[in-house]
Amino acid sequence: MSDVTATYLVPSGGDLHKKAENIALGLTVGSWTNLPTLEKQQLHKHKGVVVDVQDDGQNGILTVRYPSANFSHDIPAILTTVFGKLSLDGTIKLIDLSFSEDVARQFPGPSFGIEGIRELIGVYDRPLVMSIFKGMIGKGLDEFEQQLYAQACGGVDLVKDDEILFDNPLTPFEERVKRGKRILDQVEQETGKRVLYAVNLSGRTYELREKARQAKQLGASALLLNVFAYGLDVLQALAEDPDIQLPIMAHPAVSGALTASDQYGISNKVLLGTLLRAAGADLVLFPSPYGNVALKKNETIAIASALTESTVYRPSFPVPSAGIHPGLVPQLVEDFGKDAVINAGGGVHGHPHGAAAGATAFRQAIDAVLTNSQLTDAAYKKTELAAALEQWGGKG
Amino acid sequence: MSDVTATYLVPSGGDLHKKAENIALGLTVGSWTNLPTLEKQQLHKHKGVVVDVQDDGQNGILTVRYPSANFSHDIPAILTTVFGKLSLDGTIKLIDLSFSEDVARQFPGPSFGIEGIRELIGVYDRPLVMSIFKGMIGKGLDEFEQQLYAQACGGVDLVKDDEILFDNPLTPFEERVKRGKRILDQVEQETGKRVLYAVNLSGRTYELREKARQAKQLGASALLLNVFAYGLDVLQALAEDPDIQLPIMAHPAVSGALTASDQYGISNKVLLGTLLRAAGADLVLFPSPYGNVALKKNETIAIASALTESTVYRPSFPVPSAGIHPGLVPQLVEDFGKDAVINAGGGVHGHPHGAAAGATAFRQAIDAVLTNSQLTDAAYKKTELAAALEQWGGKG
Ligand SMILES: [Mg+2]
Ligand SMILES: [Mg+2]
């Protein structure tokens, strides 16, 4: 069968079988029971099918299969089919989505993924470390260069723009790309370490592709995209473009408007996991379960699983973000394993000895965890880690 | 001041002034209090400003102004600024959004709007009537032509594709446009009445513009767009394109994932009203307050007001949809006035004498309301209306 299967969370009670049947018909052939036999034969391959109905007394869970004959194989058509009108129809949340293999293969998945990004930077055996520019709004290119240099020298693997830094006269996109490349080339010469910089690709939708191609030409090493301010299909187009071919980092900005309610919208697993991976995100940021801006741990694990489980696509890097400091590294590795990116803003820049030391402290914490040392033991010989633990605490 | 002002609904209690200040700083310059004077001077024009904080004991309402120096003047940048990270930050809903006039003028608004669409069809003095194809999935072009002809002959002003009908081998986009034009030209010759057909513009984002330009060339009269499956900026690009210039009808598919919760996401007024109008939707569909798939009446009125109130843009047509039958026309006119589109699917096709009679019954109901007649009185001389009232009821 060629189809897309969607699972919905609805309130318990009532005739859920009928509700599921109404969904399966209403979003496909419209009606069924009273159709003439000939029309039933004609429409059979277009009819939605109820796969499963559960009611545990608290929640109902409905699973419906939509034949792929009904929609073009693009994310807008699939979203409109499985959660278009239905998103407006009372209390209902889309909590799972899966494609039959032929449909899945219509989508690119990540061009690089975990393995490809590891190859770009030559790091294979540990979680990566990423840091974020701090307070760049209103600042100029000198500040940009200084911050990038400090973070990269400290030992991070990736640096990203803040998602609220757009193209602007003080730090224009093109200049960030060019100077970013120069600084990172210099760091590589000085330290032997290759670092990627994800520049925020922003502006009008129909300019993004050309802008990304130019960025590639100018030596960009990665792209940041506020995908939910655009559309998943835009991410896919960027990922598929043979003239771009840069790692794409998907930022979760605006996604909370779709995912935050328990009763409505789309689950984090589907939106940040299943769909971002299919559309081609190489790295996916999401709120870690540890900070102020936090997701429930089971939701973060579900995202990470959807990004890395065995499918037709390369795995994408999970990037649990927000509230991350070196003392959390043991917990991060326990929760997300080695194939994750440890992403910190304040946890790098807020280090008492500066951003370079902040980055170094993360690397020291990772080394400790991977050699089964306690952070506090490792900190005896590592001043940056010691200062970080004093600043933010941390056991393990 | 050049800025965007956003209003948020949050839970009552706690230090809401501090919360608002954290938003205003966190989404702009990052920090403030401890900055050196020189840096404060440099950053002053970038700093977010708390405009208002209310707490009525049930809800907190925070209003924050974001200087437009911080973002490029496109909807993705504005959405990411005002509700990017913030959408992920606990219980919070974006309930209002306004642009200073210079920012507002960066957006096109509708190319046609209410007046332009009235001119296209030569109808100035009454609500318009729209109907929807019924159950076209799995059906061919003959069925398409028959349905279009019946609906148009009955007296509707617009006919739209169902939003779940995508480009497909049985009724390809291009054929729907060409045959749609032929049928509507024929109806105009036969009846003197011009009818618009909104074809569902679907497929990959980066193909939409060219596809819409071709549709225009082939004689399309209007476009339907599942804008929330793409992105608001895509709608804007289509509205601005000088080679398209067709009325664009925005469908609310998927929008419920953003709007349905009382505590999270974005209000219907902002998403379906303010933003769709700024981006250039000429007609905006939303669930009426009367049917099964319904919005609260105050939400539908808020959408309609945002679409029609005096701004720098042309007004867009509100299109309350779902659950509409001729008996509801008095209520619709009372709630939405003359400048609205009365949109019916089942209320046209389910008429006991067929779709043409169903369309006619709507026109008869409108005539009655506009001449201050009771529907039941008018129905004495109008058999189509009489049959509709018998089928679905209706007072007034
Ligand atoms: Mg950020
Ligand atoms: Mg529909």
Automatic annotation (TrEMBL), chains A, B:
<feature type="binding site">
    <location>
        <begin position="345"/>
        <end position="346"/>
    </location>
    <ligand>
        <name>substrate</name>
    </ligand>
</feature>
<feature type="binding site">
    <location>
        <position position="134"/>
    </location>
    <ligand>
        <name>substrate</name>
    </ligand>
</feature>
<keyword id="KW-0028">Amino-acid biosynthesis</keyword>
<dbReference type="InterPro" id="IPR017717">
    <property type="entry name" value="Diketo-Methiopentyl-P_enolase"/>
</dbReference>
<feature type="binding site">
    <location>
        <begin position="160"/>
        <end position="163"/>
    </location>
    <ligand>
        <name>substrate</name>
    </ligand>
</feature>
<comment type="similarity">
    <text>Belongs to the RuBisCO large chain family. Type IV subfamily.</text>
</comment>
<feature type="modified residue" description="N6-carboxylysine">
    <location>
        <position position="160"/>
    </location>
</feature>
<keyword id="KW-0413">Isomerase</keyword>
<comment type="function">
    <text>Catalyzes the enolization of 2,3-diketo-5-methylthiopentyl-1-phosphate (DK-MTP-1-P) into 2-hydroxy-3-keto-5-methylthiopentenyl-1-phosphate (HK-MTPenyl-1-P).</text>
</comment>
<keyword id="KW-0460">Magnesium</keyword>
<keyword id="KW-0486">Methionine biosynthesis</keyword>
<dbReference type="GO" id="GO:0000287">
    <property type="term" value="F:magnesium ion binding"/>
</dbReference>
<protein>
    <recommendedName>
        <fullName>2,3-diketo-5-methylthiopentyl-1-phosphate enolase</fullName>
        <ecNumber>5.3.2.5</ecNumber>
    </recommendedName>
</protein>
<dbReference type="InterPro" id="IPR036422">
    <property type="entry name" value="RuBisCO_lsu_N_sf"/>
</dbReference>
<dbReference type="GO" id="GO:0043715">
    <property type="term" value="F:2,3-diketo-5-methylthiopentyl-1-phosphate enolase activity"/>
</dbReference>
<feature type="binding site">
    <location>
        <position position="163"/>
    </location>
    <ligand>
        <name>Mg(2+)</name>
    </ligand>
</feature>
<dbReference type="GO" id="GO:0016984">
    <property type="term" value="F:ribulose-bisphosphate carboxylase activity"/>
</dbReference>
<dbReference type="Pfam" id="PF02788">
    <property type="entry name" value="RuBisCO_large_N"/>
</dbReference>
<dbReference type="InterPro" id="IPR033966">
    <property type="entry name" value="RuBisCO"/>
</dbReference>
<feature type="binding site">
    <location>
        <position position="251"/>
    </location>
    <ligand>
        <name>substrate</name>
    </ligand>
</feature>
<feature type="binding site" description="via carbamate group">
    <location>
        <position position="160"/>
    </location>
    <ligand>
        <name>Mg(2+)</name>
    </ligand>
</feature>
<feature type="active site" description="Proton acceptor">
    <location>
        <position position="85"/>
    </location>
</feature>
<dbReference type="InterPro" id="IPR017443">
    <property type="entry name" value="RuBisCO_lsu_fd_N"/>
</dbReference>
<dbReference type="GO" id="GO:0019509">
    <property type="term" value="P:L-methionine salvage from methylthioadenosine"/>
</dbReference>
<feature type="binding site">
    <location>
        <position position="162"/>
    </location>
    <ligand>
        <name>Mg(2+)</name>
    </ligand>
</feature>
<dbReference type="GO" id="GO:0015977">
    <property type="term" value="P:carbon fixation"/>
</dbReference>
<feature type="domain" description="Ribulose bisphosphate carboxylase large subunit ferrodoxin-like N-terminal">
    <location>
        <begin position="6"/>
        <end position="86"/>
    </location>
</feature>
<feature type="binding site">
    <location>
        <position position="323"/>
    </location>
    <ligand>
        <name>substrate</name>
    </ligand>
</feature>
<feature type="domain" description="Ribulose bisphosphate carboxylase large subunit C-terminal">
    <location>
        <begin position="113"/>
        <end position="392"/>
    </location>
</feature>
<keyword id="KW-0479">Metal-binding</keyword>
<dbReference type="Pfam" id="PF00016">
    <property type="entry name" value="RuBisCO_large"/>
</dbReference>
<dbReference type="InterPro" id="IPR036376">
    <property type="entry name" value="RuBisCO_lsu_C_sf"/>
</dbReference>
<comment type="subunit">
    <text>Homodimer.</text>
</comment>
<comment type="pathway">
    <text>Amino-acid biosynthesis; L-methionine biosynthesis via salvage pathway; L-methionine from S-methyl-5-thio-alpha-D-ribose 1-phosphate: step 3/6.</text>
</comment>
<dbReference type="InterPro" id="IPR000685">
    <property type="entry name" value="RuBisCO_lsu_C"/>
</dbReference>
